[in-house]
């Protein structure tokens, strides 16, 4: 694996991690349809249900607000500070320290490890969709992948999805669909359907990419047969930079003077409308009453120059282990959620990787990654089925290790490691010298 990951395989033994026992049966009835929504760079205060003051006039998310307030809000839901490690964690069922802590470009490679030294999830690990497909699910991925692409086994198709429609990199131009970052040569189109470049019609060329993702998600739901449960992983590009949005949405917020904040707010509104259409389609197809919707951001909202997020009252944002960078908007909703859980909020710890074991339990499959070599760690994921289906149940997770910030094998100053531990205390590693981790730097 990558050097940084290899180091943390050693360091993390000092952290007590609960490994789940085999959980192979759902305790809440038939297998639900699962809609997993992972929004990119969504700020804590960029949704209405977290805004309770006059400035909320600049937030317009009625659908997200309704789904959250009519569902179960997860007040202590933690992710990685940046997108790539979060997505690798989610799809592998492992904390970032056990899969990938480097938010580098897709071509990042460790020549000392020709088997697993590629950016993203190491090929030997079993993906979430592989588990769900073994449980009889039809599996579909739409939008951003950012969990590996150097080898076929690392793509969404290689990880168990029946279909894939989206892009591999951190970001792309919303209209030209070209990758942004360090691609050489530049202006490479990063738009893929299954295992080949996406073929777009004349009307789709130059279309806002998240509009294409919305339409694909709707098509998947419409064309789904009733013979198997559906797993739809919907991970739109919004609201990641570059801040681009159709003029209709831009014009809705003409009273916002700051251009970045206006763009960002308009993109969030687009996201809200897209989610409304997807939920409505599930209802039209008589699927909503047996659907579990899981909603999360991949990291906190970005506060750096050129971004437009707001994480108030949380400190910090994307790229930091302060609460604003790792504690995110998250909730579960849908008709499959027990009636007693509607309109509730729970504050137990949940890590993004915990949805791996949760979905495995709902699918009736063993969450353990039995194909991994014996000398490598099993999954860290803990099933949250009881936690989200009973008000009496407590979260099985007592701590969430927070990975440091690496970019292309370079440690990013200010991105030290840390630990969220029950009842929600935070230790921050202040030292820049991560190797050899001196306990005196823990506060």
In short:
By secondary structure, the chain is α/β, with parallel strands linked by helices.
Q: What keyword list fits this structure?
A:
10 helices; disordered N terminus; 443 residues; disordered C terminus; 3-stranded antiparallel sheet; globular; alpha/beta
Q: Give the SSE string.
A: HEHEEHHEEEEHEHHEHEEEHHEEEEE
Q: What's the helix count? A: 10
* N-C termini distance: 30 Å
Rg calc: 20 Å
Q: Could you name the ranges where pLDDT drops below 50 across 5 or more consecutive residues?
A: 1-29, 429-443
| Shape descriptor | globular
Q: Please state how the strands of the largest beta sheet are arranged side by side.
A: 7-6-5-4-8-1-9-10-2-11
Biggest sheet descriptor: 10 strands, mixed
The percent range for strand residues is 5-15%
Secondary structure: number of strands = 17
Oligomer state of the chains in this structure:
single chain
User: What is the share of helical residues?
Assistant: 10-25%
Content-based structural category: alpha/beta
Give the overall pLDDT as a whole number.
86
Describe the structure.
- With 443 residues, the protein is an alpha/beta fold.
- The chain is built from ten helices and 17 strands.
- A ten-stranded mixed beta sheet has the order 7-6-5-4-8-1-9-10-2-11, sandwiched between helices.
- The radius of gyration is 20 Å and the shape is globular.
Question: Could you give the topology of this structure?
Answer:
Layout: H1 3-11, E1 33-39, H2 62-70, E2 72-74, E3 77-78, H3 83-92, H4 128-134, E4 138-144, E5 163-167, E6 192-193, E7 196-197, H5 209-223, E8 230-235, H6 247-250, H7 259-284, E9 291-297, H8 323-326, E10 330-333, E11 344-346, E12 350-351, H9 354-363, H10 385-389, E13 399-402, E14 406-407, E15 410-411, E16 418-421, E17 425-428
Parallel strand pairs: 1-8, 1-9, 2-11, 3-12, 4-5, 4-8
Antiparallel strand pairs: 2-10, 5-6, 6-7, 9-10, 13-16, 14-15, 16-17
């Amino acid at each position: 694996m990558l050097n940084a990951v290899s180091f943390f395989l050693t360091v993390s033994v000092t952290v007590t991690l609960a490994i789940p026992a085999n959980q192979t049966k759902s305790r809440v009835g038939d297998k639900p349809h699962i809609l997993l929504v992972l929004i990119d760079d969504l700020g804590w205060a960029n949704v209405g249900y977290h805004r309770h003051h006059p400035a909320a006039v600049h937030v317009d998310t009625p659908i997200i607000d309704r789904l959250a307030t009519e569902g179960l809000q997860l007040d202590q839901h933690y992710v990685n500070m940046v997108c790539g490690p979060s997505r690798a964690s989610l799809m592998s069922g492992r904390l970032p320290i056990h899969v990938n802590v480097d938010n580098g470009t897709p071509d990042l490679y460790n020549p000392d490890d020709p088997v697993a030294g590629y950016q993203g999830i190491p090929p030997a690990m079993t993906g979430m969709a592989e588990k769900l497909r073994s449980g009889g699910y039809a599996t579909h991925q739409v939008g951003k992948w950012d969990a590996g692409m150097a080898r076929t086994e690392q793509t969404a198709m290689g990880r168990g999805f029946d279909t894939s429609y989206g892009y591999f990199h951190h970001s792309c131009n919303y209209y030209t669909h070209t990758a942004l970052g360090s691609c050489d040569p530049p202006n490479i189109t990063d738009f893929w359907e299954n295992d080949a470049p996406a073929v777009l019609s004349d009307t789709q060329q130059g279309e806002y990419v998240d509009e294409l993702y919305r339409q694909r998600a709707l098509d998947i739901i419409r064309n789904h047969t009733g013979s198997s449960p559906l797993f739809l992983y919907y991970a739109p590009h919004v609201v990641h930079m570059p801040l681009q949005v159709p003029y209709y949405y831009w014009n809705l917020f003409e009273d916002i003077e700051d251009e970045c904040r206006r763009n960002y707010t308009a993109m969030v509104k687009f996201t809200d409308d897209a989610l409304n259409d997807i939920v409505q389609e599930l209802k039209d197809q008589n699927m909503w009453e047996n659907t579990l919707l899981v909603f999360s951001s991949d990291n906190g909202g970005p506060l750096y120059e050129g971004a437009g997020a707001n994480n108030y009252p949380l400190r910090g944002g994307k790229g930091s282990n302060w609460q604003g960078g790792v504690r995110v908007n998250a909730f579960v909703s849908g008709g499959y959620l027990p009636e007693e859980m509607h309109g509730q909020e729970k504050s137990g710890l949940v890590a993004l990787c915990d949805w791996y074991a949760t979905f495995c339990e709902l699918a009736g499959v063993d969450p353990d990654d039995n194909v991994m070599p014996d000398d490598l760690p099993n999954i860290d994921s803990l099933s949250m089925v009881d936690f989200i289906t009973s008000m009496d149940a407590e979260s099985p997770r007592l701590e969430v290790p927070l990975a440091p910030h690496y970019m292309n094998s370079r440690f990013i100053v200010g991105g030290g490691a840390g630990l969220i531990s029950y009842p929600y205390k935070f230790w921050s590693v202040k030292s820049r010298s991560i190797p050899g981790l001196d306990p005196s730097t823990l506060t």
